[in-house]
Specification:
Involved in the gluconeogenesis. Catalyzes stereospecifically the conversion of dihydroxyacetone phosphate (DHAP) to D-glyceraldehyde-3-phosphate (G3P). By secondary structure, the protein is an alpha/beta fold. Helix content is 43%, strand content 15%. It has one domain: TIM Barrel (Alpha-Beta Barrel). It has an eight-stranded parallel β-barrel, surrounded by five helices. The mean pLDDT is 97. The protein binds 1,3-dihydroxyacetonephosphate.
């Protein structure tokens, strides 16, 4: 299976800054066949960057989009409009869930809309600090995972990437504790067990599972070695070119 290194730029960089960053990143990277390097700029930068990017080296992801393909939905961008522009879309990020009130039902529609438009969904799931403290992690993971996939036909579930991002480990969260490899391994096991139970062993094995939350050059190697982890979803560190490149090179070393 490929390794995925995904940079989520969140609400950072002007279009010009994003273009300069991409230019430098393209120059810094060889073409790593077994690593998919993906960056997720703001929606406004996606189209210009799609003209600039060399897709053999780097692919683009949306950070969010709307599930209807057209209509009276002021302010939204549809997955149908991102066809040919973005290859991936992050969906259900905790910032979408907790700041913008997205629930599993809406997220499920977005996952289905992405697939319908040939965009690979990166479905983010993860428990908050208090959910973990109350022993609810397994339930939250199951609800967000199975809920998020509920609108996808069974034979399309293998088109999804799952990202485990414990909310308490995200650098912008109040606590921002670093997850240990053991904590991650336990939840990744749970994710695959749930997938196996609902969709069967083959699908459970085929779905890439990424980890995200305060990933940096210092911990990327250890996180990539966690059994069942197929890549990383990176916020803060992906904004610093040298750190992002360092993480990609670590991924390359870890694989070989
Ligand atoms: P940080 O890497 O800044 O913790 O962000 C993680 C994240 O939310 C990526 O989607």
């Amino acid at each position: 299976m490929k390794t995925y290194i995904v940079g989520n730029w969140k609400l950072n960089f002007t279009v010009g800054e994003a273009s300069i960053y991409l230019h430098k990143l393209l120059k810094a990277l060889p073409n790593y066949r077994d690593i998919d390097v993906v960056v997720a700029p703001s929606t406004i930068a996606l189209q210009p960057l799609s003209l600039q990017v060399d897709r053999h080296k780097i692919k683009l992801a949306a950070q969010n989009a709307f599930y209807r393909d057209y209509g009276a939905f002021t302010g939204e961008t549809a997955f149908s409009q991102l066809r040919g522009v973005a290859d991936y879309s992050i969906i259900g990020h905790s910032e979408r869930r907790y700041i913008f009130g997205e629930d599993d039902k809406m997220i499920a529609k977005k996952v289905a809309a992405a697939i319908r438009n040939r965009i690979t969904p990166i479905l983010c799931i993860g428990e908050t600090e208090s959910e973990r403290a109350f022993g609810e992690t397994a339930d939250v993971i199951r609800d967000q995972l199975i809920g998020g996939l509920s609108e996808v036909a069974d034979d399309n579930v293998d088109k999804v990437i799952v990202a485990y991002e414990p909310v308490w480990a995200i650098s912008s969260s109040k606590v921002a504790k670093m997850a240990t490899p053991d904590e991650i391994a336990e939840v990744v096991k749970l994710i695959r067990a749930n997938l196996k139970e609902v969709y069967g062993e083959k699908t459970a094995k085929e779905i890439p599972v990424l980890f995200g939350g305060s990933v940096s050059p210092a911990n990327a190697g250890a996180y990539l070695m966690v059994p069942g982890v197929n890549g990383l979803l990176i916020g803060g560190s992906s904004l610093i070119l040298s750190e992002f490149v360092d993480i990609i090179e670590t991924a390359k070393r870890t694989r070989s």
